[in-house]
Amino acid sequence: MPPRPGQPPQGPQPLPGVDSIIAVGSGKGGVGKTTLSVNLAIALVKLGYKVGLLDADVYGPNVPLMLGINAQPKVLPDNRILPLEAHGLKVISVGFLNPGDKPLIWRGPMLHSIIRQFLGSVEWGDLDYLVVDLPPGTGDVALSLIQTVPLTGAVVVSTPSDVSLQDARKAIEMFHQMKVDIVGMVENMSFFVCPHCHHEIDIFSRGGAEKTAAEFGVSFLGQIQLDPNIRKAGDSGSPAVLAGEEGAQPLYDFARKVVQRVDEIQSGASDGVIQVQ
Predict the structure, then answer these.
(1) Which end of the chain is more exposed for a tag (fewer CB within 10 A), N or C?
(2) Domain 18-259: which CATH class?
(3) In the chain, where are the structural domains located?
(4) Lowest mean pLDDT segment, chosen from 2-16, 45-59, 119-133, 165-179
């Protein structure tokens, strides 16, 4: 039933000009979710796509630091917001509006309002992909996003440790219950290569995310090693993928697999059903 005149439309509404909306989530913090969100978005730009990045991690908005942005977006006369740009990427973040160390202490309705504003009031323009960096867990922000716009799919980030995987399974189940397709699961901090002997060390175990993806019947998007250069690049505002594919091959492989899976989902080749064994 269509809404009455003057009433807001019911249910998730597409963003004009945005082809695909990809949420990047995790069951817990500390797994490098924002690092992968930022590198995924820039890698997609480098692969020739028009990309936006929405930093929805309202409690820990680290995207401005990782992109080296220290500015505020402009507000147009009609209260539309112009996103900032960095490395060919359109970006919006709570960190632009609330810089510094002051925390945001918001309840659910306020979180819902800011997510709706960042989606509906920002001049995103024409985008192939809008990457949304979610806060850890399965709380209000993820639900607000799902209720506001139709997600193309979700990427779940986990380390291979049992503790991380336990929470990642909850994230997968949340997206499943909300009828959101799972683009796939990626294993971050999968292993560490000793710079002296070049031996691979499984600091957090290894392969757990791939096994979990197989158990849940979702795609595995690859392993990203624990690399100090990725951390340094993010801290400096110059993400690792800017060094090119030779220096960040696993991150580019991850981005290409995301593109492939999104194409499969949009073509109907993926039914989005998660099979729990």
Answers:
(1) N
(2) alpha beta
(3) 18-259
(4) 2-16
